[in-house]
Amino acid sequence: MKSSVILFCFYWLIVLPVMAQEPALPAGLGKDNSNNEPDLPAGLTIKKPASPKVQDNEPTLPSGLNSADAPALPGKPSAENDTESAWDSWTDAKLPFSLTGFWEARGGTRVVNDAHERGTSMAETRLQLELDKNFRTVSFNLTTDLIYDNVADRHRINLNTGRGWIDLRSANLTFSPTSFMDIKAGRQILTWGTGDLLFINDLFPKDWNAFFIGRDEEYLKAPSDTFKTSLFSDWANLDVAYTPEFDADRFIDGRRISFFAPQLGVISGRNAITHSNRPNDGELALRLYRNIGTYEAAVYFYDGHWKSPGGFDPVNNLALFPKLRVTGGSIRGPLGKGIGNIEVGYYDSRDDNKGNNSLINNSEFRALVGYEQEIARNLTLGAQYYLEHMLDHNNYLRTLPTGFPVRDKNRHLFTTRLTLLTHSQNVTWSIFSYYSPSDEDFYLRPKVNYRVDDHWITELGGNIFGGKKTHTFFGQFRNNSNIYLAIRYGF
Question: What is the distance, to the nearest Å, from the Cα of residue 64 to the centroid of all Cα atoms in its chain?
Fold first, then answer.
């Protein structure tokens, strides 16, 4: 706890003197914001391009995952500057490609003792280099993170799990063979759906370790090695993403975060690291979407495997990724003075679609309803309700081994996001909370982010877990509660 207090005090010794130099302007002297009607998120406004092809077919990331949002720690200087930075001028003159990136240092500590993990939750520095080159008909992107991670036991590179001193975030080619088609081939970050830090039809890999220890929210999304084709028409647009070899989540396995191991009946960590049997076949994801007035509607299809382990082989003591097929839909658009969204999905667990094997995830129906609105000047509130409904629950209970914890038929989850901008919108105060009344557990993500200038940003935040039971989703992480401090320089 002493180290937590030192980290907290050190942060405010840096931030407060700088914040005091630039007080907020009195009401009426700032930028005109008399219009209380919030803007639609990017991707919902209707623009009619010269051809049927939509120029930016990738939907907006949910709030908190968009690197352009104010709370995020950007890797580039602000795009609002009218004058070109010295770095851009130098790179344009000296290099045959565009080079941007950032340097970052992050440190964190647990606020409770965990017998199975180190007291230091995070101690790392990274340099991200992003190289872009546009040729006449092809665009190339390469984004690489060079990392020193003091918490990791080993630094051997594994690009699938993100472990090691290199994390390859993207390496892809983009080209348009026809006016109604785009192709993006290679390593890339993909996201679909409408949820805010909740995912139903987004079956692309996530990095839950990065999310729970306090890395920037952009690192919740792990890269996919995918061949993605986008087809455009006046009626609707279609995305087809084929991944030749299954890309799993960077899931919780005990190396950094302790968790409840059902086969052991206790919380474990580095003392019992989970090993898995990853499939090597491909996966396919489809998204058909169009604008209906001011609303964006989409239907989805996925054929592959559970992204995090959804089964267990007791003979070989291996976590499994059973076959999974998902169909779903979503709609998002203006509702009252804010933005509303609905998303649903049917999870067909194909290796146990009757629910007769309790060691494999049962089929499920999932749904979420969300709403976001600016409730006062520079103060935004977002709320969501999320449901997981287990099908064939009676068969699950009948085959559950003795001593295993029992899952409820319905898991209910509520989330809220409260965001306040102060000091000419250079300081962002936010808290994101998860609460499950059925599991009786919670997860809080408070943070304050200060944009010093177009290059320097600092952030103080935390990940606080709690619950009455050790086997519920958030309750199992109670010993992983942590606070962290970050500083980043973008160029």
Answer: 8
> What's residue 356's pLDDT?
87
Give the confidence band of 59 by pLDDT, cuts at 50, 70, 90: very low
The pLDDT, as a whole number, for residue 8 is: 46
Domain-embedded: residue 111: yes
CA distances from 405 to 135, 272, 343 (A): 57, 19, 29
> Residue 414: is it exposed, middle or buried by C-beta count within 10 angstroms (0-12/13-18/19+)?
middle
Residue 29 included in any domain: no
Q: Could you write out the DSSP letters of every residue in 417-444?
A: EEEEEETTTTEEEEEEEEEETTTTEEEE
Spatial CA neighbour of 208 closest among 274, 264, 265, 156: 274
- β-pair partners for 313: 318
Percentage above 90 pLDDT, the chain: 75
The length of the chain is 491
Q: What is the pLDDT of residue 83?
A: 44
DSSP-derived secondary structure letter, 477: G
Instruction: Tell how far CA 180 is from the center of its chain.
Output: 30
Domain that holds residue 142: 2-23+41-490
Query: Total structural domains in the chain?
Result: 1
* Average pLDDT in the chain: 86
Cα→Cα distances 232→182, 229, 389, Å = 9, 10, 35
Is residue 164 predicted with pLDDT exceeding 60? Answer: yes
Listed residue (453, 409, 405, 404) closest to 427, CA to CA:
453
Q: Is residue 461 in a domain?
A: yes
Helix ranges restricted to H, 275-409? 393-399
Is residue 358 very low, low, confident or very high in pLDDT (cuts 50, 70, 90)?
A: confident
Block residue for tokens 């240092």: 105
DSSP string, 118-158: -SEEEEEEEEEEEEEEE-SSEEEEEEEEEEEESS-S----B
Summarize the confidence of residues 198-215 as an average pLDDT. Answer: 98
Sign of CA dihedral 244, 250, 252, 255: positive
∠ CA(471), CA(472), CA(477), 5° rounding? Answer: 80
pTM, full prediction: 0.83
C-alpha–C-alpha distance, residues 58 and 68, integer Å: 14
Beta-sheet pairing, 181-188 with 224-231: antiparallel
Domain at 282, CATH number: 2.40.160.10
Please give the structure tokens belonging to residue 362.
């049962």
